[in-house]
Amino acid sequence: MSGFVLAFTVLSSLLLTTSFAQNCSSYSFPGNRKFSLCRELPYLSSHLHWNYNQNTGKLDLAYRHGGIMSKDKWVAWAINPNNNLKNSMIGAQALVAIPRSDGSNSVYSCPITSYDTTLAEGTISYNVSGLSATRQGNEVIVFATLMLPSGTTTLVHLWQEGLLSGSTPQVHAMASANTNAKESLNLVSSQAPAGV
Fold first, then answer.
1. Residue-level pLDDT at 8
2. Three-class SS of residue 85?
3. Phi, psi of 184 (to 5 degrees)
4. What burial letters (b/e) apply to 65-101, b meaning 16+ CB within 10 Å?
5. Per-position DSSP letters for 166-191, written without gaps between them
6. Where do the structural domains in the chain lie, given as residue ranges?
7. What is the reported pLDDT for 181?
8. pLDDT, tens digit, 9 for 90 and up, residues 85-105
9. Predicted local distance difference test score (pLDDT) of residue 1
10. Distance between CA atoms of 166 and 97, rounded to whole angstroms?
11. What's the CATH code, domain 35-186?
12. CB-based contact 57:150 (threshold 8 Å)
């Protein structure tokens, strides 16, 4: 019996490793886009892929948010330029994707100034280009290029999902997966620093 348990444990570990690789570093993007770093985010079936030039601060990213089974959900990825992990939502500079009735996605930037935000479109504190979003099955992918201050190595980022009322984003759920969807990220090594 113990041999069976050991074999099952090893097999499970290999399957999890394979799954992680397929979900992160081996993922194939449409248009053959390539990203050198990736991180499987710990909450909300999400992944972040990016290329980063520390000298110029240029951050090319793809944010993947899975588990979107209905067409009445928004998704967002954001940076908090204050590097405040505890209160990361206030001051966050977000990229928001909302599904349209024709199956495409509306995608825009949004500065978050309060907890009861409806994620209204607005200018954020980073220069943004190449902003687009696609949906493949139950996954939404947001693409963008952001210009960070040169020399940046870590940032506080957060990601989220919520329901729509018509085309207006509503406040996200307060389940632990939602409230914990934030971390400090090392842009150079793709790791979250210890203790976060």
1. 36
2. coil
3. -90, 135
4. bbebeeeebbbbbbbbbeeeeeebbebbbbbbbbbee
5. TTEEPPPP-SHHHHT-EEEEETTT-P
6. 35-186
7. 96
8. 888 999 999 999 998 878 788
9. 46
10. 14
11. 2.60.40.1210
12. yes
User: Is the Cβ–Cβ distance between 108 and 94 less than 8 Å?
Assistant: no
**Strand partners for 28:** none
Q: Which residue has the tokens 């909450």?
A: 43
Exposure string for 45-64, b = 16+ CB within 10 A, e = fewer: bbbbbbbbeeeebbbbbbbb
Token reading at 128: 């943004």
Return contacts of 168-174, CB within 8 angstroms, 24+ apart.
168/118, 169/74, 169/96, 169/98, 169/117, 169/118, 169/119, 170/118, 171/115, 171/116, 171/117
Nearest alpha-carbon partner for 145 in 127, 119, 161: 127
Quote the DSSP letter at residue 141: E
Asked if 89 contacts 158 with a C-beta cutoff of 8 angstroms, the reply is: yes
| 113, 102 Cβ separation under 8 angstroms | no
Token digits of residue 38: 């990736």
